[in-house]
Amino acid sequence: MTRLILAMFLSLSLPHLAAAHSPLLSSSPADGEAVAAAPDALKMRFKGRARLVRFTLSGEAAGDIALGRDHLVIESQTHSITLPDLAADDYQVRWRAMSADGHVIKGGLSFTIHAK
Ligand SMILES: [Cu+2]
Fold first, then answer.
1. 92 to each of 27, 63, 86, 107, how far by Cα in Å?
2. 102 Cα–ligand 1 center, Å
3. Model's pTM, two decimal places?
4. 106 CA to middle of ligand 1, Å?
5. How far is the CA of 73 from the centre of ligand 1 (A)?
């Protein structure tokens, strides 16, 4: 009986694993990018529709950056996170999102704004 349940579980879950979630395909600024001018927004493109549930930004010198919440819980393949006027610094982003299939995906990226 246990083996039957295990077999049923595997047959249900494996095709889903192959289909995967909606991973982040690209962002602007991109991970590791150094930009000369502070961007007005951070743009994210996922493979499928996803809802951001958490998005944090911190600067190495500036510390945690306060952001609005307008970008959260919108189901879309592309997201634009409005940024405040950022100073030259090294920045770290951490995000968490819900795939359209209900699974949680998360990641991080970093970018640098050069001193003028
Ligand atoms: Cu999934």
1. 13, 10, 13, 11
2. 7
3. 0.81
4. 12
5. 17
Ligand 1 centroid – CA 95 distance (Å): 17
Per DSSP bridges, beta strands 63-65 and 34-35 are unpaired
**Bridge partners for 91 per DSSP:** 59, 111
- Rounded to the nearest angstrom, the distance between the alpha carbon of 112 and the centre of ligand 1 is 31
pLDDT tens sequence across 17-42 = 545 689 999 999 999 999 999 999 99
Domains of the chain: 21-113 (2.60.40.1220)
Quote the ligand 1 centre to 53 CA distance (angstroms): 16
Assign 46 a pLDDT band (cuts: 50, 70, 90).
Answer: very high
